[in-house]
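Thread: quick sanity check before group meeting

JM: Hey all, I'm pulling together slides for Thursday and realized we never actually wrote out the predicted structure for the chain we discussed last week. Dropping the sequence here so it's in one place. If anyone has concerns about the input, flag it before I start.
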Amino acid sequence: MDGKNSLQITRTASGAYDDDGHAKRTGNLKSAVAHIITAVIGSGVLSLAWSTAQLGWIGGPLALLCCAIVTYVSSYLLSDCYRNPDPVTGKRNYSYMDAVRVNLGNKRTYVAGFLQFLTLYGTGTAYVITTATSLEAIMKSNCYHKEGHQAPCSYNGTVYMMLFGLVQIVMSFIPDLHNMAWVSIVAAIMSFTYSFIGLGLGIATVIKNGTIMGSVTGIQPAKRADKIWLIFQALGDISFSYPYSILLLEIQDTLKSPPAENQTMKKASMVAIFITTFFYLCCGCFGYAAFGSATPGNLLTGFGFYEPFWLIDLANVCIIIHLVGGYQIYSQPIYSTADRWCAKKYPNSGFVNDFHRVKLPLLPAFEINLFRFCFRTTYVISTTGLAILFPYFNQVLGVLGAINFWPLAIYFPVEMYFVQKKIGAWTRKWIVLRIFSFACFLVTMVGFVGSIEGIISQKISGKG
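JM (edit): ok, ran it. Output follows.
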């Protein structure tokens, strides 16, 4: 027996380490649900009323329910890929890319890695846009309250994006996802709070109006072609509303065992998806019922609601706090991959591997790694710059939803499931999953095309 294996057995026996020699994982069902809700209920919830308005009273709720079912199927397949070859006793895959590499080989790993990081990066950019929009909404809400609803209240969103970027540079000092349970819990509480506020305001507006607005076919723009583009974009936005598949294995890697990690993760996915779908249906449907054809693109910042202004302010503060944590949840996989790759590539580099103790006035001492500081700061600056360049909320969400939905949430989990469970070609299960995958591919394509068209149209027209 070599020294490494002996050390691993000693560590495991000590109770302080897991079977892979890593520090004992302490995550449980509650922490996994909190991580999932933090990852899922983000800026996507704010566009659901608009998406429902494009699809109408039948298409909107149906699209949301279908997306929830697809997400659960995807999470069920992925949960079994955490360990190989056996989902309970096999070797751990610490990330989505590790699972793809083990099951599907290096070539498809590069494709999966590119798409995963593109989605994570894009989601960070979307969170910059959303946070700036919420900060603007707070300023406008107070301005409208004092000056009247017709007042020319206008603020510079670029400044707010830069402020958010500064906060994220500081937050990026958090070492990794294992140290972020408290961030997820706070963010999950915030997401529930603003979802409840949006839901409550929608219900109150429906009661005040005395009627349910909207129609079976949704908003009818002047041109029929515009209706098609808007339906496509709405499907992209809805597919963005369940984006956590790419983080599932990273979240699963925080769970303790027994019970087996895949069983805990399946339960956590079911609980989290049930909770979020309930909120999504309520926010989407009551938002559309309140405003009908005038439904704003962003439920809490589009000023369908003006009063009570303090409640709208509170909702937007909750959004901001949530997205501060959500940005880190989506950035940490990129940070940790960069750390591991550079440590392996440059094992003798002090810049990459050394930590320096820093003591600032009025703050406790902390350790800083120069590579982490430079890489993470550059990363945050780049997402902030991209958000400033393309500040189009609904369209950006649609593009991200399309990129994530079929390739990462459907195609790779299905292919890995075939390999791990040794599913033969043309068997019943193989045919069903192939049809399932192809149907999701069609949704991805229409969402992507519609959202790209929306971004181009906005850029040409000069709207921000």
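AS: nice. The chain has a mean pLDDT of 82. The first strand starts at residue 83 and ends at 84.
JM: adding both to the slides.
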